[in-house]
Specification:
Blueprint lengths: L22 E2 L12 E6 L6 E7 L2 H18 L4 H17 L1 H12 L3 H21 L6 E3 L6 E9 L3 E4 L7 H13 L3 E4 L5 H13 L7 E3 L6 H9 L5 E5 L2 H11 L5 E5 L4 E5 L5 H13 L9 E7 L3 H13 L19 H16 L3 E2 L14 E4 L6 H4 L6 E7 L2 H9 L6 E5 L3 H10 L4 E4 L18 E2 L4 H4 L4 E9 L3
Helix pairs in contact: 1-7, 2-4, 2-5, 3-4, 3-6, 4-5, 9-10
The structure holds nicotinamide-adenine-dinucleotide.
Length: 494
């Protein structure tokens, strides 16, 4: 496989953000684009059609799997140094194309443009980090009790990978899977969420434009995902499935994958608690809750979903949080000043609004000012007098709503935080060092932010326990998900 284009300067990338009339085909080697149907992509902000996108089915999935198998056979033979060079070139290309990618995400899923630029940086950081990590795929030599034997452990790529990604981070959820996969020597087929296909398509085009082989990273788009997913999961050539999305779909895919014994990674839903202790610097705690709760309109798997505040500071914390939320600017995603855009869909809007309505009907108190919103927008809201029976305390809201509950002591706060089937991210604010250690150890979560509402970085393991999933993405841990261990025992005088 020739990788001679890896150093091509990132100067002339041909990608465009969606505009009415734009047409995007899937990025599958050898695809006859005109033979594939199309579906209409609508803006969640305006409801207008912003592009037409390939609606692939079983035939395209089969083609992608054929390619992925061929791509794997040659890609696995490349050196990690060559793979690293391509990942670095792709990283530079993403940063050079930042504005187009950010605009695409703003248009596809309503992410405020400033946050969308931040996502491009975050997404690209996985390419750079795994470009470096590709060179550290070392194995082991084990000591032997037999003088004539040599024992070695090799780390080899698992094979072609099928990745299914959600709409809430249209770029980062792709690179967090694809970068370690490619670095390890796997080929990857990505099926992006039906709401955000264009970001994925543009990433694949950039990959090809820096010289990435077309059979090694492919993007298959579809309005109804099950047909593609069923076929690829049943295909024995696909050796791994990695999924980020909701817990029910994750469980469904996990069960289906048993038949062909796939390696699985599942990054699923969360229901993050934020515990604010009474020794907190209240303004600093408010700032971290704002960052954790209202980023991406609350549509983040690690978003705070429940805020527990120690009784002594409850009123003053609640007042300052409500003031900060009232100051949030709600608007069109492409406007520079917008902090809260629309939710991604009617269903997303209805769920978040129903959590507010249910809480108010059961006696909760709204602390924030009423705002006129329409379409898929939900007014950012803070609720007090919330009880554990309310839906907002039981389910992931995925919207800009913060329910506040008072607690009395550390044990009560930890018990409430852990009383959920989910276990992705949890947060606490305290200046007491002993408490910081005790509580972070006691929380049944994969990620804990201590005085930190935004802990995600490419070098750290990201993932959950219980119903929040299996496996980790990111860091040196994340690449293990794409590697098999092979033990080689050699008798010298064989
Ligand atoms: P979703 O489960 O509806 O969709 C996620 C992906 O699965 C999409 O690509 C979708 O097309 C696909 N899908 C849906 N049904 C399918 C089926 N039957 N067969 C195959 N594929 C199918 O979730 P969503 O609403 O898009 O995403 C939000 C969810 O993702 C939230 O629960 C959030 O917490 C979770 N999430 C988790 C993480 C994490 O790292 N743990 C990160 C982001 C989002």
């Amino acid at each position: 496989m020739s990788l001679s284009h890896a150093s091509r300067p990132a100067a002339h990338f041909m990608i465009e953000a969606p505009t009415p009339g734009a047409d995007y085909t899937a990025v599958i080697a050898g695809l006859e684009a005109e033979a594939v149907g199309r579906y209409s992509l609508r803006s969640p902000a305006s409801g207008e059609v912003i592009a037409s996108v390939a609606d692939c089915g079983a035939a395209q999935a089969r083609l992608a799997a054929d390619n992925a198998q061929r791509g794997f056979e040659s890609w696995r033979q490349t050196t990690p140094f060559a793979r690293a060079a391509l990942l670095k070139a792709w990283h530079s290309a993403m940063l050079e194309a930042k504005e187009v990618l950010a605009l695409t995400m703003a248009r596809e899923m309503g992410k405020p443009i400033g946050e969308a630029r931040g996502e491009v940086d975050y997404a690209a950081s996985f390419l750079e980090w795994y470009a470096e990590q590709a060179k550290r795929l070392d194995g082991d030599i084990l000591p032997s009790q037999h003088p004539d034997k040599r024992l070695a452990v090799l780390r080899q790529p698992v094979g072609p990978v099928f990745a299914i990604t959600p709409w809430n981070f249209p770029a980062a959820m792709i690179t967090r899977k694809v970068a370690p996969g490619l670095a390890a020597g796997c080929s990857v087929i990505v099926k992006p969420a039906e709401q955000t296909p264009v970001t994925a398509i543009l990433l694949a085009r950039l990959w090809q434009q820096v010289g990435g082989p077309a059979e090694v990273f492919q993007v298959i788009t579809a309005e109804r995902p099950a047909e593609i997913s069923d076929l690829l999961i049943a295909d024995t050539r696909i050796r791994k499935v990695t999924f980020t999305g909701s817990t029910p779909v994750g469980k469904h895919l996990y069960a289906k994958s048993a038949a062909t014994m796939k390696r699985m990674s599942l990054e699923l839903g969360g229901h993050a608690p934020f515990l604010v202790f009474d020794d907190a610097d209240i303004d600093a705690a408010v700032a971290e809750v704002m960052a954790s709760k209202f980023r991406n309109g609350g549509q983040t798997c690690v978003c705070t979903n429940r805020v527990y505040v120690q009784r002594g500071i409850f009123d003053s914390f609640a007042k300052r949080l409500a003031q900060a939320v009232d100051a949030l600017s709600v608007g069109q995603p492409e406007e520079e000043t917008t902090q809260i855009g629309p939710l991604v869909s009617q269903a997303g809007r209805d769920k978040a609004q129903s959590h507010i309505d249910d809480a108010l009907a059961q006696g909760a108190r709204r602390l924030t000012a009423a705002r006129e919103v329409d379409g898929f927008f939900v007014a950012p809201t803070v609720l007090a007098d919330v009880t554990e029976e309310m839906r907002i305390m039981q389910e992931e809201t995925f919207g800009p709503v913060a329910p506040l509950v008072a607690f009395d002591d550390e044990a009560q706060a930890v018990a409430a935080a852990n009383a959920t089937p989910f276990g992705l991210a949890a947060y606490l604010w305290t200046r007491n060092l002993g408490r910081a250690h005790r509580v972070s150890e006691a929380l049944d979560y994969g990620i804990v932010g201590v005085n930190d509402g935004a802990p995600s970085v490419p070098q750290a393991p990201f993932g959950g326990v219980k119903d929040s999933g299996i496996g980790r993405e990111g860091g040196r841990y994340g690449i293990d998900e794409y590697l098999d261990l092979k033990f080689v025992s050699t008798r010298l005088d064989g």
